[in-house]
Protein backbone atom coordinates (compact mmCIF):
# COMPACT_ATOMS: atom_id res chain seq x y z
CA UNK A 1 0.00 0.00 0.00
CA UNK A 2 2.92 2.35 0.71
CA UNK A 3 4.25 1.77 -2.81
CA UNK A 4 0.80 2.52 -4.22
CA UNK A 5 0.62 5.77 -2.23
CA UNK A 6 4.04 6.80 -3.50
CA UNK A 7 3.04 6.13 -7.09
CA UNK A 8 -0.19 8.05 -6.59
CA UNK A 9 1.65 11.03 -5.14
CA UNK A 10 3.96 11.04 -8.15
CA UNK A 11 1.09 10.93 -10.63
CA UNK A 12 -1.17 13.54 -9.06
CA UNK A 13 1.06 16.58 -9.80
CA UNK A 14 1.07 15.58 -13.48
CA UNK A 15 -2.75 15.68 -13.58
CA UNK A 16 -3.10 19.04 -11.87
CA UNK A 17 -1.88 21.52 -14.55
CA UNK A 18 -4.72 22.63 -16.80
CA UNK A 19 -3.93 23.39 -20.45
CA UNK A 20 -4.48 26.97 -21.53
CA UNK A 21 -7.74 27.35 -23.42
CA UNK A 22 -8.22 30.24 -25.81
CA UNK A 23 -11.64 31.83 -26.21
CA UNK A 24 -13.57 29.80 -28.81
CA UNK A 25 -13.42 30.87 -32.41
CA UNK A 26 -16.31 28.72 -33.60
CA UNK A 27 -19.62 28.12 -31.79
CA UNK A 28 -21.74 25.21 -33.03
CA UNK A 29 -25.50 25.32 -32.41
CA UNK A 30 -27.30 22.01 -33.00
CA UNK A 31 -29.92 19.63 -31.61
CA UNK A 32 -27.86 17.28 -29.46
CA UNK A 33 -30.14 14.24 -29.26
CA UNK A 34 -30.51 14.21 -33.03
CA UNK A 35 -26.96 14.84 -34.26
CA UNK A 36 -24.44 14.54 -31.42
CA UNK A 37 -23.45 10.90 -31.93
CA UNK A 38 -23.01 11.02 -35.70
CA UNK A 39 -22.67 14.17 -37.77
CA UNK A 40 -21.41 16.47 -35.00
CA UNK A 41 -18.70 13.99 -34.02
CA UNK A 42 -17.23 14.08 -37.54
CA UNK A 43 -17.59 17.86 -37.76
CA UNK A 44 -15.68 18.35 -34.49
CA UNK A 45 -12.92 16.05 -35.72
CA UNK A 46 -12.73 17.97 -39.00
CA UNK A 47 -12.49 21.38 -37.32
CA UNK A 48 -9.92 20.21 -34.80
CA UNK A 49 -7.82 18.61 -37.54
CA UNK A 50 -7.49 22.14 -38.94
CA UNK A 51 -6.46 23.39 -35.48
CA UNK A 52 -9.61 25.48 -35.16
CA UNK A 53 -10.79 26.35 -31.68
CA UNK A 54 -14.47 25.55 -31.10
CA UNK A 55 -17.22 25.20 -28.52
CA UNK A 56 -20.14 22.79 -28.50
CA UNK A 57 -22.67 22.58 -25.71
CA UNK A 58 -22.01 19.09 -24.37
CA UNK A 59 -24.34 19.62 -21.41
CA UNK A 60 -27.61 20.31 -23.24
CA UNK A 61 -29.27 17.35 -21.52
CA UNK A 62 -28.21 18.79 -18.16
CA UNK A 63 -29.62 22.24 -18.98
CA UNK A 64 -26.25 23.94 -18.95
CA UNK A 65 -26.24 27.40 -17.43
CA UNK A 66 -27.55 29.59 -20.26
CA UNK A 67 -25.30 32.49 -19.24
CA UNK A 68 -22.24 30.34 -19.83
CA UNK A 69 -23.48 29.41 -23.29
CA UNK A 70 -24.18 33.06 -24.08
CA UNK A 71 -20.66 33.98 -22.98
CA UNK A 72 -19.23 31.39 -25.38
CA UNK A 73 -21.30 32.90 -28.19
CA UNK A 74 -20.01 36.39 -27.33
CA UNK A 75 -16.41 35.10 -27.38
CA UNK A 76 -16.77 33.44 -30.77
CA UNK A 77 -15.90 34.77 -34.21
CA UNK A 78 -18.18 32.43 -36.14
CA UNK A 79 -21.37 30.55 -35.29
CA UNK A 80 -22.31 27.44 -37.27
CA UNK A 81 -26.06 26.89 -36.92
CA UNK A 82 -27.12 23.39 -37.97
CA UNK A 83 -30.84 23.40 -38.71
CA UNK A 84 -32.23 19.86 -38.49
CA UNK A 85 -35.79 18.53 -38.32
CA UNK A 86 -35.93 18.60 -34.52
CA UNK A 87 -33.98 21.83 -33.99
CA UNK A 88 -37.08 23.84 -33.01
CA UNK A 89 -38.23 21.34 -30.38
CA UNK A 90 -35.28 22.48 -28.23
CA UNK A 91 -35.75 25.64 -26.21
CA UNK A 92 -31.98 25.77 -25.70
CA UNK A 93 -31.39 25.79 -29.47
CA UNK A 94 -33.88 28.61 -29.97
CA UNK A 95 -32.33 30.68 -27.17
CA UNK A 96 -28.87 30.13 -28.67
CA UNK A 97 -30.18 31.19 -32.07
CA UNK A 98 -31.70 34.34 -30.60
CA UNK A 99 -28.35 35.32 -29.05
CA UNK A 100 -26.49 34.48 -32.27
CA UNK A 101 -28.92 36.63 -34.25
CA UNK A 102 -28.45 39.58 -31.88
CA UNK A 103 -24.67 39.51 -32.24
CA UNK A 104 -24.90 38.99 -35.97
CA UNK A 105 -27.09 42.09 -36.31
CA UNK A 106 -24.41 44.05 -34.41
CA UNK A 107 -21.73 42.78 -36.85
CA UNK A 108 -19.97 41.06 -33.97
CA UNK A 109 -20.45 37.51 -35.24
CA UNK A 110 -20.39 35.74 -38.60
CA UNK A 111 -23.08 33.10 -39.07
CA UNK A 112 -22.98 30.01 -41.29
CA UNK A 113 -26.38 28.29 -41.46
CA UNK A 114 -26.35 24.62 -42.39
CA UNK A 115 -29.61 23.03 -43.59
CA UNK A 116 -29.27 19.40 -42.54
CA UNK A 117 -32.02 17.24 -44.04
CA UNK A 118 -34.32 20.29 -44.11
CA UNK A 119 -34.83 22.90 -46.81
CA UNK A 120 -34.23 26.59 -46.52
CA UNK A 121 -37.96 27.11 -47.07
CA UNK A 122 -38.80 24.77 -44.17
CA UNK A 123 -36.77 26.98 -41.84
CA UNK A 124 -37.81 30.37 -43.20
CA UNK A 125 -41.52 29.57 -43.52
CA UNK A 126 -41.68 27.08 -40.63
CA UNK A 127 -42.95 24.23 -42.77
CA UNK A 128 -42.65 20.44 -42.66
CA UNK A 129 -41.50 18.57 -39.56
CA UNK A 130 -39.30 21.54 -38.67
CA UNK A 131 -42.35 23.81 -38.57
CA UNK A 132 -44.49 21.26 -36.72
CA UNK A 133 -42.05 21.20 -33.81
CA UNK A 134 -42.13 24.98 -33.68
CA UNK A 135 -45.94 24.88 -33.52
CA UNK A 136 -45.58 22.80 -30.36
CA UNK A 137 -43.21 25.41 -28.96
CA UNK A 138 -45.65 28.16 -29.92
CA UNK A 139 -48.39 26.37 -28.02
CA UNK A 140 -46.14 25.87 -25.01
CA UNK A 141 -45.37 29.60 -24.84
CA UNK A 142 -48.71 30.97 -25.99
CA UNK A 143 -48.73 33.32 -22.99
CA UNK A 144 -45.37 34.77 -24.04
CA UNK A 145 -45.96 36.02 -27.62
CA UNK A 146 -42.89 38.28 -27.56
CA UNK A 147 -40.61 35.28 -27.09
CA UNK A 148 -42.26 33.48 -30.00
CA UNK A 149 -41.93 36.53 -32.27
CA UNK A 150 -38.26 36.90 -31.35
CA UNK A 151 -37.58 33.25 -32.18
CA UNK A 152 -39.46 33.54 -35.48
CA UNK A 153 -37.48 36.64 -36.43
CA UNK A 154 -34.18 34.90 -35.60
CA UNK A 155 -35.11 31.83 -37.65
CA UNK A 156 -36.20 33.88 -40.67
CA UNK A 157 -33.17 36.17 -40.58
CA UNK A 158 -30.55 33.43 -40.18
CA UNK A 159 -32.26 31.33 -42.87
CA UNK A 160 -31.80 34.26 -45.28
CA UNK A 161 -28.02 34.13 -44.77
CA UNK A 162 -26.02 32.28 -47.41
CA UNK A 163 -25.32 28.81 -46.09
CA UNK A 164 -24.77 25.14 -46.91
CA UNK A 165 -27.36 22.46 -47.62
CA UNK A 166 -27.39 18.68 -47.35
CA UNK A 167 -29.31 18.67 -50.65
CA UNK A 168 -26.14 19.84 -52.37
CA UNK A 169 -23.40 18.24 -50.24
CA UNK A 170 -25.11 15.23 -48.63
CA UNK A 171 -25.42 14.47 -44.92
CA UNK A 172 -21.97 12.95 -44.43
CA UNK A 173 -18.31 13.81 -44.90
CA UNK A 174 -18.97 15.93 -47.97
CA UNK A 175 -20.98 18.39 -45.91
CA UNK A 176 -18.40 18.26 -43.11
CA UNK A 177 -15.64 19.21 -45.55
CA UNK A 178 -17.69 22.13 -46.90
CA UNK A 179 -18.38 23.46 -43.40
CA UNK A 180 -14.71 23.25 -42.39
CA UNK A 181 -13.63 24.93 -45.64
CA UNK A 182 -16.18 27.74 -45.24
CA UNK A 183 -15.21 28.34 -41.60
CA UNK A 184 -11.51 28.57 -42.53
CA UNK A 185 -12.26 30.95 -45.39
CA UNK A 186 -14.33 33.29 -43.22
CA UNK A 187 -11.72 33.30 -40.45
CA UNK A 188 -9.01 34.18 -42.97
CA UNK A 189 -11.15 36.98 -44.43
CA UNK A 190 -11.85 38.44 -41.00
CA UNK A 191 -8.14 38.30 -40.16
CA UNK A 192 -7.40 40.05 -43.47
CA UNK A 193 -9.85 42.77 -42.51
CA UNK A 194 -8.01 43.32 -39.23
CA UNK A 195 -4.71 43.54 -41.11
CA UNK A 196 -6.17 46.14 -43.46
CA UNK A 197 -7.28 48.21 -40.48
CA UNK A 198 -3.74 48.03 -39.09
CA UNK A 199 -2.33 49.22 -42.42
CA UNK A 200 -4.69 52.18 -42.45
CA UNK A 201 -3.49 53.17 -38.97
CA UNK A 202 0.09 53.10 -40.27
CA UNK A 203 -0.92 55.23 -43.22
CA UNK A 204 -2.52 57.78 -40.90
CA UNK A 205 0.69 57.92 -38.89
CA UNK A 206 2.77 58.53 -42.02
CA UNK A 207 0.44 61.29 -43.22
CA UNK A 208 0.37 62.95 -39.79
CA UNK A 209 4.15 62.83 -39.50
CA UNK A 210 4.52 64.29 -43.00
CA UNK A 211 2.14 67.13 -42.15
CA UNK A 212 4.10 67.98 -38.99
CA UNK A 213 7.38 67.82 -40.90
CA UNK A 214 6.10 70.15 -43.63
CA UNK A 215 4.79 72.55 -41.01
CA UNK A 216 8.18 72.70 -39.30
CA UNK A 217 10.21 73.05 -42.52
CA UNK A 218 8.11 75.57 -44.45
CA UNK A 219 5.56 77.36 -42.31
CA UNK A 220 7.52 77.70 -39.07
CA UNK A 221 10.69 78.71 -40.95
CA UNK A 222 8.88 81.51 -42.81
CA UNK A 223 7.59 83.01 -39.58
CA UNK A 224 10.85 82.56 -37.65
CA UNK A 225 13.84 84.22 -39.29
CA UNK A 226 15.96 83.81 -36.19
CA UNK A 227 17.53 80.33 -36.10
CA UNK A 228 17.25 80.09 -32.32
CA UNK A 229 13.59 81.01 -32.33
CA UNK A 230 12.98 78.54 -35.18
CA UNK A 231 14.57 75.71 -33.20
CA UNK A 232 12.49 76.60 -30.17
CA UNK A 233 9.28 76.63 -32.22
CA UNK A 234 10.22 73.32 -33.80
CA UNK A 235 10.68 71.71 -30.40
CA UNK A 236 7.63 73.33 -28.83
CA UNK A 237 5.24 72.43 -31.66
CA UNK A 238 6.72 69.48 -33.55
CA UNK A 239 7.56 67.13 -30.70
CA UNK A 240 4.24 67.50 -28.77
CA UNK A 241 2.24 67.03 -31.96
CA UNK A 242 4.11 63.84 -32.80
CA UNK A 243 3.67 62.55 -29.25
CA UNK A 244 -0.05 63.32 -29.43
CA UNK A 245 -0.40 61.54 -32.76
CA UNK A 246 1.44 58.48 -31.47
CA UNK A 247 -0.74 58.38 -28.37
CA UNK A 248 -3.96 58.58 -30.39
CA UNK A 249 -2.78 55.86 -32.77
CA UNK A 250 -1.86 53.63 -29.86
CA UNK A 251 -5.31 54.06 -28.34
CA UNK A 252 -6.94 53.38 -31.69
CA UNK A 253 -4.95 50.20 -32.32
CA UNK A 254 -5.68 48.95 -28.81
CA UNK A 255 -9.41 49.58 -29.30
CA UNK A 256 -9.45 47.61 -32.59
CA UNK A 257 -7.93 44.45 -31.10
Automatic annotation (TrEMBL):
Annotated stretches, region: Disordered: 1-23
Pfam families: TIR
Segments of skewed composition (Basic residues): 1-10
Keywords, sorted A to Z: Membrane, NAD, Transmembrane, Transmembrane helix
Keyword Cell division on entry: no
Protein name: TIR domain-containing protein
Domain named TIR: residues: 22-187
Keyword Transmembrane: yes
Positions of transmembrane segments: 201-223, 229-252
Amino acid sequence: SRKYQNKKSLRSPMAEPQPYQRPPQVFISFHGDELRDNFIRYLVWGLRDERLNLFIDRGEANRREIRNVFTKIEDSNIAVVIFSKRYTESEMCLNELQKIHEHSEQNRLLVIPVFYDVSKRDVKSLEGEFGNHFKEMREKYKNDPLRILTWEDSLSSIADTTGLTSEEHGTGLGLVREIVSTVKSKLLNSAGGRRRRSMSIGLVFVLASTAVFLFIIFIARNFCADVRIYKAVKCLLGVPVLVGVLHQLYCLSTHNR
